[in-house]
Write a structure and sequence with these properties.
Blueprint: H1 3-68, H2 71-76, H3 84-97, E1 101-108, E2 127-136, H4 138-149, E3 155-164, E4 168-172, E5 175-179, E6 184-193
């Protein structure tokens, strides 16, 4: 082989190696730029999400400040455990005031509070469930419901069952209640929210 051919062959080999190395470097840089670009886009999305959350937090803080003065009023509408007896007495007085014979039972209580070190009970869903049996005229039962609706305690009437009487005795818990013709027997289930 002549020197000239060797020179061109060497030059061609070196050129091919340089082109391959350049392509490898270009490919490496392209992949790194693509990855950095993807990371940048993700970072921008996260930053935008954090900014939106920051705006929501600030709006929440402003809202909280605006209701902070009303917090005692808000707490007052939730029944405290120590006020259950007083609430039952209020229900009894309402039944007497509206001329209804009655029977009141607590049939559900809030979940037990967790002891220190245990998982915390869901306080947001604390409530007492009462079953109220009323016997009287339809208007007196509606009067009771009206008074119940206007109580300062946050409650929900979950179920109402009304049965018109033909007269005679209505029984409940081994108790016979005399009813006049046209009277009703009502069973109310109410949920009273607690703190």
């Amino acid at each position: 082989m002549s020197v000239k051919k060797k020179f061109y062959l060497t030059l061609l080999s070196v050129g091919a190696i340089l082109i391959a190395a350049g392509a490898g470097v270009a490919l490496y840089l392209f992949l790194n730029i693509t990855e950095a670009s993807s990371d940048y886009v993700e970072s921008q999305k996260e930053l935008l999400t954090l900014q939106k959350k920051g705006v929501l937090i600030k709006e929440f803080e402003r809202e909280l400040e605006s209701i902070q003065s009303d917090w005692p009023k808000i707490e007052a509408v939730f029944l405290r455990e120590e006020d259950i007896l007083g609430f039952v007495e209020t229900l009894e007085k309402l039944a007497e005031k509206t001329k209804n014979r009655h029977s009141i039972n607590i049939i559900g209580t809030p979940p037990a509070k967790a002891a220190p070190g245990e998982a915390k009970a869901d306080e947001a869903s604390s409530f007492f469930v009462f079953r109220i049996n009323l016997w009287g005229s339809l208007s007196s039962v509606f009067d009771f419901l009206n008074y119940l609706e206007n109580q300062p305690i946050y409650l929900s009437v979950e179920d109402i069952q009304l049965v018109r009487s033909e007269g005679g005795l209505a029984g409940f818990d081994k108790t016979a209640v005399p009813l006049a013709p046209g009277d009703v027997s009502a069973v109310l289930t109410i949920k009273v929210f607690a703190r």
